[in-house]
Automatic annotation (TrEMBL):
GO MF annotations, alphabetized: GTP binding
Family: Belongs to the TRAFAC class dynamin-like GTPase superfamily. Very large inducible GTPase (VLIG) family.
Species of origin: Dissostichus eleginoides
Positions of transmembrane segments: none
Stated name of the protein: Interferon-induced very large GTPase 1
InterPro entries according to UniProt: G_VLIG_dom (IPR030383), GVIN1_dom (IPR058641), P-loop_NTPase (IPR027417), URGCP (IPR057365), VLIG_GTPase (IPR052986)
Domain (VLIG-type G) ranges: 601-844
């Protein structure tokens, strides 16, 4: 295989990296590909394209298997050229993704292998378990590569308690199944495995197979590769296929080619499934030589149509010799598709799993050595033992006790020293002490603590820790740090789970013990132990050992060591979040050491992300830059960490920096820290500090945390204002997480504008508090553009974890954001770029400012009922004025549409409606601005205690925005209805006009025929009737629409995103549904999983029936109200109706079947009423009926013309009766409603209707006087 391997690596341009020379550090560098994602233009670019996409957690990375223009040749070639299909499958410009992954793992060093496996696992790809190398008979167990993968799952045994398991996947004791194949096998085991793992959820290509892009390309080096993936349950019977986690291994190539791998997999597996068409002699010998084959071996036989008898005979012979039971042979019938067979296979696996032993990958190590396989982590045994010695020393003792002995510098004295330094600046002294006396006391206590800390000796564990960080052996150092991280994380998971369990129990109690919860919060915080605590102790050893003059050389080398770690991609703790302090000497000397190591070329671009806890801040940075900030480690780490990313030589000039510094912060508004006294102040200090350091600040907003985010923004604005004072104006980007859809950017324009309005409002308030009245807008303090600086990022997971892969849309959106961000940095190049010395000076001055100021930013939140009620009254007046103006405008616009010339083309009317809609936007915007102005002026008044209701201003602003949207929707619907009515009336009037012309023509003909004859009135009427009957005989009516079908279509659209297709398919006609009152059935009532007693269920049944009756009554009134209007049916009526039903359903508990049955019932009622409405509308405009109305007038005209009478007076009477009177009546009826409301609001009882509180009070008083309890119940339900 060696020549084949080197040939393949040379083809990919990877030969110089073999073996294991490709490093993680080299991939994290910011280069031109960070700006422009280039497709692979040559085979040598394919590995880098794959790695770039993988590091962005882009699930499409496995599609990077061929040169981007390779399809062009195929399109231009002759499709009938048989040589195309008989030539070697493996073209020069494409590779099999399995070969690509194998090559990259062979070239990657141990840490890059770990990072690749971790990111592949996040994408829900299989990861290498056994890696073939130069000779296929040799293989390596990839235990180290998989060590970093931590998974969460919920076995069905824990589903009741809603608990979960979190574990390193190589340490999880779970069933292990291997899937292999024989030489003759036409069934794709990878496809079957994918189907098994995807049952009950969206299909995902976990294992690469021949039907995937590049999967059919001939493999060169991947045979012998064994991959592994895991099925992890979420704790629900549906859609979980397996109740417990299971590992699935997949061996590439046939077992004869990879005998060592197969034998090893068979020995460690719970069961092994062999896929085959027939069994060759050599394969028969291999299978029959296996021990325990009759209980662990399963044959999956693909029986094809016309399978040779000898093929089946070879299988039968092996089965007989192995004494396999029938249940161990799974026949794939050609009549059963892959899905059906996968279900059969999963059922068999479930059956096998019961009572079988489990296996963890960690314990496969000894067996791997026995079978002659190498193990990748055997090279780091010394570092493993050193880290094990430290972690074993922790034992079962409580973490706070361990810290006080082994990490003493970061204990209570360090935290007290931090408080003293702040107090020294703020001097909140007791009244009994003079300022200088108090300051002297503080200085004396500070000095005592420093002396005490300086005299402490290195603990045994810290001696071991520092000793394991040699200066010139970065590989040993990195292995040791990784082992420490892995073991400490595992220890933390075990220790913190019991504390979290206690905390949950206390929080769920009815009578919560606040003090106990507070105590547990503190204990959770102090029980956190990770690699960062040892690194922090190392920094404090340096910080305090310099206070006394007996510093050893060992201590002096620490800043240089930390600088090397920074350059190798390790984060440095900038702000100790536990003590809320910066070890200034340590941070300064580390960064100055780094400055010297890079030849004093250290221009920095500082980028910070800020947001509420658990909103995906660290994940965002990790995806953007491929780094690995801690995510969901389960520990309450506090503070800010900085990470240096080197900028490549070709990009340094463009970005005007040598390093991009990422600052990741703890989440603000942490629920666990909220119980602590200093949590609010701590958040403010952290936000102010990191924003002050930044050139670019990312405000991370998750839609579900919007309320907390407002608090964060208040904090941020104060910080931005302070930066403005000292001449710094950072770029700000808002990232809105969990927002998807192609129209998201356009649809959220209103929300973005609302956010900006809120920011402006907060800025104004903050500016007043900061005594900067000249600042009015958010953009006065920050470089922010509402169009360019807002980013919508879809949700991270494509489906529901733990089996969900990362959403490709997430990684692509983050990549676009990163590209735009770096492009923006390129455009705004400035000469004022900080190098490390300037950055450190900035850190010192900023931290000094933080210490001198007590950042308690709070707006007054007290609500005074009277002040609030007065504002409500005023607001109702402004709202009515806005609404009344719109009603008058709407009536005028509708009249203009309905009275437009019938001869005009329909498109002209549509243009007119579009024009009206444009005018409407301006009209509504004007009304909104007027209401905003009224609100602003109201809040400027000094005589009505508006300061007490400051916090509610944003609610009224939101109400104004909501009114604006509501009015726009309503008036737009009215305009659309008017257009449809006009189109319908045009059809009717065209028919009328045509026949009126014919009638007039026939009348004139009758007159000319009878001009010289003398006829009586009776004869004239008879002749006219004959003519009328003849002319109107063929008058066509207007076509009746299928209203039931239209209503049903809207119902289908309403349920389009939910699985109700089967119920809807059974509906033939909505009108036929409502044959009696709606009855709640037992299948409608939702009961708990434990069930309930009969009488309790009866009570629930009655409550649901009562609710259904009320909802149907309310909706029927809504429908009847619509049906009474003199308009035609419009689809918006059904949409509004279904929205009304949804509103009424909120807050009630029921089965989904109840919702669909109720909506079908209500839509059935609506379809009948809307049909009746439609028929009335048609009859009012029916050409025949309309012509019949004018028949007496035509007859009188005919008689008058025959007798040559003057008919002006009669015509005038007709005009008044037929034209003037209807128009006046219509005008009065249109304006009557608004005039009545005006009269009510201005009349002597206006106070009763001036606010919601008054209005409800008066209704309840009236109901009380009536003494009618049922009316009161109805009022409550409404």
């Amino acid at each position: 295989m060696k020549p084949v391997l080197f040939t393949f690596l040379s083809k990919l341009g990877l030969e110089t990296f073999y073996p294991n020379k490709l490093t993680l550090r080299s991939l994290l560098e910011i280069n031109k590909n960070s700006l422009n994602e280039e497709a692979a233009i040559s085979v040598q670019k394919i590995p880098w394209c794959f790695l770039r996409k993988l590091f962005k957690i882009n699930a499409e990375c496995r599609s990077c298997t061929q040169v981007s223009n390779s399809d062009d040749n195929e399109e231009s070639s002759d499709p009938f050229d048989l040589d195309l299909y008989t030539a070697d499958e493996s073209a020069d410009n494409e590779v099999n993704p399995l070969d690509l992954i194998t090559a990259l793992f062979l070239c990657a060093d141990s840490f890059l292998q770990q990072e690749m496996a971790l990111k592949m696992s996040m994408c829900q790809f299989s990861v290498p378990l056994l890696m073939p190398h130069v000779n296929n008979s040799q293989s390596t167990l990839m235990l180290w590569a998989l060590r970093d993968i931590v998974k969460e799952w919920c076995p069905h045994s824990l589903s009741e308690s809603r608990d979960f398991v979190e574990n390193n996947i190589v340490q999880a004791k779970i069933p292990f199944y291997s899937f292999v194949r024989l030489q003759n096998c036409s069934l794709s085991k990878s496809q079957i495995l994918n189907q098994v793992l995807s049952l009950g959820q969206q299909y995902h290509n976990i294992f690469i197979h021949r039907e995937m892009k590049g999967g059919a390309i001939k493999r060169h080096i991947a045979n012998g590769l064994a991959e592994v993936s895991w099925y992890l349950p979420r704790g629900r019977e549906h859609p979980d296929v397996f109740p417990d986690p299971i590992a699935f291994a997949n061996l590439r190539g046939n077992i004869s080619e990879s005998l060592a791998q197969f034998t090893f997999l068979f020995q460690v597996s719970t069961a092994t499934f062999v896929f085959l068409d027939k069994i060759e002699k050599e394969e028969h010998e291999i299978l029959t030589s296996l021990q325990d084959a009759n209980s662990k071996l399963f044959l999956v036989v693909n029986r094809k149509d016309g399978s040779a008898k000898e093929d089946m005979e070879s299988v039968r012979k092996t089965v007989k010799e192995l004494d396999l039971p029938n249940s161990s042979v799974k026949m794939k019938d050609p009549r059963v598709n892959v899905v059906g067979f996968s279900e059969k296979l999963s059922a068999a696996i479930n059956k096998i799993t019961v009572g079988k032993p489990t296996m963890d990958i960690e314990n496969m190590l000894d067996k791997a050595v026995d079978f002659g396989l190498s193990v990748d982590e055997c090279t780091s045994d010394d570092q493993n033992k050193a880290s094990e010695k430290i972690v074993k020393g922790i034992g079962v003792q409580k973490i706070p006790g361990y810290k006080s002995k082994q990490l003493p510098l970061q204990g209570a004295d360090w935290k007290r020293l931090s408080q003293l330094e702040k107090e020294e600046c703020r001097l909140k002294r007791p009244d009994t002490l003079a300022p200088e006396e108090y300051k002297s006391q503080l200085l004396e206590e500070k000095q005592q603590i420093k002396e005490k800390l300086g005299k402490l000796k290195l603990s045994d564990d810290m001696k071991t820790f520092i000793k394991q960080l040699p200066k010139n052996d970065s590989k040993s150092r990195d292995f040791f740090l990784k082992w420490m991280k892995l073991k400490l994380d595992a220890h933390s998971r075990d220790q913190l789970s019991s504390l979290r369990h206690q905390w949950t129990e206390q929080s769920n109690k009815e009578n919560k013990d606040v003090e106990e919860i507070k105590k547990l919060d503190q204990e959770l915080l102090e029980s956190s132990l990770g690699l960062e605590h040892y690194m922090r102790e190392m920094g404090l050893i340096y910080e305090f050992s310099l206070q006394s003059q007996n510093s050893a050389d060992e201590v002096h080398r620490l800043p240089g060591l930390a600088a090397e770690l920074l350059l190798d991609g390790y984060p440095l703790e900038l702000l100790d979040g536990d003590a809320s302090n910066i070890p200034e000497k340590w941070v300064t000397d580390v960064l100055m050491e780094l400055h010297r190591k890079v030849g004093e070329k250290s221009r920095l671009l500082v980028l910070t992300v800020l947001g509420v806890q658990s909103t995906g801040k660290s994940t965002l940075l990790n995806t953007m830059f491929g780094v690995q900030f801690a995510v969901s480690s389960g520990r309450c780490t506090r503070g800010a960490y900085m990470l240096f990313l080197r900028v490549s030589d070709d990009m340094q000039h463009q970005l005007n920096c040598d390093f991009i510094v990422l600052i990741d912060t703890e989440g603000l508004k942490s629920p666990h820290l909220a119980q602590l006294e200093d949590s609010y102040e701590h958040d403010n200090q952290l936000a102010t500090f990191v924003i002050g350091l930044s050139d670019v600040t990312i405000i991370n907003v998750a839609s579900e945390n919007s309320t907390e985010m407002k608090d964060v923004l208040q904090i941020a604005i104060h910080a931005f204002l302070r930066m403005k004072q000292i001449g710094k104006k950072p770029i700000c980007h808002f990232v809105h997480q969990n927002v998807a859809g192609v129209s998201a950017h356009a649809r959220t324009l209103t929300e973005r504008q609302l956010l900006l309005d809120q920011l402006n409002e907060m800025t104004k308030i903050a500016a007043e508090m900061e005594k900067q009245p000249s600042i009015k807008r958010f953009t006065d303090v920050l470089d922010y553009d509402i169009k360019e600086n807002n980013w919508n990022i879809p949700g991270l997971w494509h489906g529901t974890p733990p089996m969900a892969p990362v959403n490709t849309g997430y990684s692509e959106a983050v990549a676009d954001f990163k590209k735009n961000l770096l492009e923006t940095v390129k455009k705004v190049k400035t000469d004022d770029v900080s190098q490390i010395p300037e950055f450190l000076e900035w850190v010192r001055s900023l931290w000094k400012a933080v210490k001198y100021e007590n950042f308690i930013f709070s707006f007054r939140n007290t609500l005074v009922a009277h002040a609030y009620d007065n504002l409500c009254k005023k607001f109702n007046q402004w709202e009515w004025k806005f609404k009344k103006d719109l009603i008058f405008w709407q009536d005028g616009a509708k009249l203009q549409i309905l009275n437009s010339d019938n001869k005009t083309h329909v498109n002209t009317w549509k243009t007119m409606v579009d024009s009206k809609k444009t005018q409407l936007i301006a009209k509504i915007e004007g009304g909104r601005k007027e209401m905003d102005k009224n609100l602003d002026e109201y809040y400027k008044r000094k005589d009505i205690h508006v300061s007490l209701i400051e916090k509610y201003k944003i609610d009224f602003i939101n109400r104004i925005r909501s009114l604006k949207d509501q009015f726009q929707h309503s008036v737009n619907n009215a305009l659309d209805c008017a257009l449809e009515e006009k189109q319908s009336s045009k059809e009717a009037q065209d028919i009328q006009s045509k026949h009126r012309e014919m009638i007039e023509k026939e009348v004139m003909k009758l007159l000319s025929d009878r001009e010289h004859r003398t006829l009586s009135d009776e004869q004239l009427k008879h002749d006219f009737q004959q003519m009328w009957t003849k002319v109107t005989a063929n008058v066509s009516g207007l076509k009746e629409l299928n209203i039931s079908e239209k209503v049903f279509k809207q119902l289908r659209i309403h349920f389009s995103n939910r699985n109700f297709n089967e119920e809807l398919q059974n509906i033939k006609d909505l009108k036929d549904i409502v044959k009696g009152p709606f009855e709640v059935k037992s299948e409608h009532v939702k009961v708990g999983w434990k069930g309930i007693k009969f009488w309790e269920k009866e009570s629930l049944h009655k409550e649901l029936q009562s609710f259904a009756d009320t909802a149907i009554e309310s909706c029927t009134l809504f429908v009847l109200g619509k049906a009474k209007t003199d308009t035609d049916y419009h689809d918006s009526f059904t949409k509004d109706l279904l929205e009304k039903v949804d509103d009424s359903l909120q807050g009630n508990t029921f089965q989904p079947k109840f919702e669909i049955d109720l909506k079908l019932h209500i839509c059935g009622i609506a379809s009948r009423e809307f049909l009746q409405m439609h028929r009335i509308f048609l009859s009012g405009r029916d050409p025949r009926i309309q012509l019949e109305k004018y028949k007496p007038q035509y007859l009188l005209d005919f008689i008058d013309l025959y007798k040559k009478k003057d008919h002006c007076q009669r015509k005038a009477n007709d005009f008044v009766r037929l034209c003037i009177k209807p128009a006046v009546e219509d005008y009065i009826s249109r304006h009557l409603g608004t005039n009545i409301v005006d009269e009510v609001l201005a009349g002597r009882h206006s106070a009763e209707y001036s606010s919601r509180n008054f209005f409800q009070y008066n209704i309840q008083e009236e109901l009380l006087l009536k003494e009618d309890f049922q009316s009161f119940v109805k009022f409550i339900r409404k």
